[in-house]
Predict the 3D structure of the following.
Amino acid sequence: MANPKPRVKVPKKASKGEVITIKTLISHPMESGQRKDKQGNLVPRQIINTFKCEFDGQLVFECDMDPAVSANPYMEFNAKVENSGTFKFTWVDDDGSVYETEKKITVE
Amino acid sequence: MARSYRLSLAAGVALVLGAHSAAIAGGPSDDKLVIDGEMEIMTRVAPPEGHPLDEVISGWHYRTEETRDLEADSFQNPGMLYVERGEEIWNTVEGDAGKSCASCHEDGAEFLKGIGANYPKWNAGAGKPFNIELQINQCREENMQAKPYKFDAADQKALTTFIKHQSIGMPVELDLTEGDMKSWWDKGEELYYTRTGQLNLSCATCHEDYNGNYIRADHLSQGNVNGFPTYRLKQSAMVSLHNRFRGCIRDTRAAFPAAFSDDLMALEVYVTWRGSGLGVETPAVRQ
C-alpha cells in the first residue's frame, strides 16, 4: 500500500446516552525494524506509533503501538454520546507524518 | 491386580485423547459465511459432474473462528484496502495511449460483474487459457501501450483483487467447451495427482485424501481457489493464486514452475473447476 489511508466507521445517528461502536482501520505496512533485506541490512522501523480519537476536543481513546502490531492496524472501541458533534481520528507515523480523518454524528 | 489397574488407566487415557483429537480435527466448521449480515456466500455446494468428492467446501470453513469473522465483516477485512486501491488503479491513466481501464470499460462495476467468476477463460489469440492477471497485461500492452505488470507487483495484485471482487457471491463457473480448454483441464488433472518433491506429495494427498485433518498446526482444506487473491495473515498482504501454487509446490520440496507458465495455468483451470459452484469470496481472509 503506497499511501496510508484511514477508514473509519461511525454511526451517522444515535440517541442521547447511547453507547456506539467505532471501528477504524488504516493501511500501513508496520515495518517492525527487525527484518533484513536481501543484502542482510536491517529494514528501518516504520510503524504507526500513536492512535488517538477525540470528540469535539475531548479525548475518547488513545493508545501507543509497538513493533509487534500487524500491518493495517484495526481498532474497535465504544463511546457514549450525549450530544451531536465530530469525532477526530489521528494516527502518527514514525516518520512524523500525521494521518487524520473526521466523522460527524447526530444525536437525537 | 496392580497391573490390570494400570492397563485400565492406560485405556482411559487413550479414550480421552481420542475424544480430544476428534474435537480439534473436526473437519470444516458448520458456520455460514454471511458478509455484513447481508450477503450469504455459497461455501458448501454439490460437486460438478466427475468430481471426486461428495461436497465442495470453501477453505473459509477450515479456518479459526477469528479468521472467519474477519472475512464476514467487510470493514474489518484487510483485503478491502486492496479493493479500494485496485479501484484507483482502474481509473488511473497509464501508458502511451493515454488510457485507463475505465476509458474503454466505462461502467466498471457493471462491466466486471461476473467476469471474475468465469476466469480462466480461453484466449483464442494466445492459444491458451488466460487468467485475470494475463488479461490485464494483454490490455496494458495492446490497448494502453503500458508496460505489463511483473508477477506479483503490488498494483497487479490490487487490480486483480478489485476485478475479482466485483463478482463476490457469484458462483464459480468455467466454460470448458471453449477452444482447447478441455485438454488444459486434462493436463491440470494429471498435475494435480502427480506426486512431486522430496516429500513425494501431490495436491491430492493433502487437499483430497486428508482435507479436514491437520498437517502440523495447519488445518488442511480442499484447496479451492474461489477466494483468490486472498489476504493471508501470515504475509499481512494479498497473495495471488500462482504465488500460493508455488508456495505449496515449494513445501513439497520440489522445484516450482514459473508463474503463469503452461503448467500452472493448466493447474489453475483444473483447480478452479474443482471449486465450481462456490461463491467468489475475493478478498478472502486466510491464516
Observations:
- The mean pLDDT of chain A is 92.
- DSSP finds no helices and eight strands in chain A.
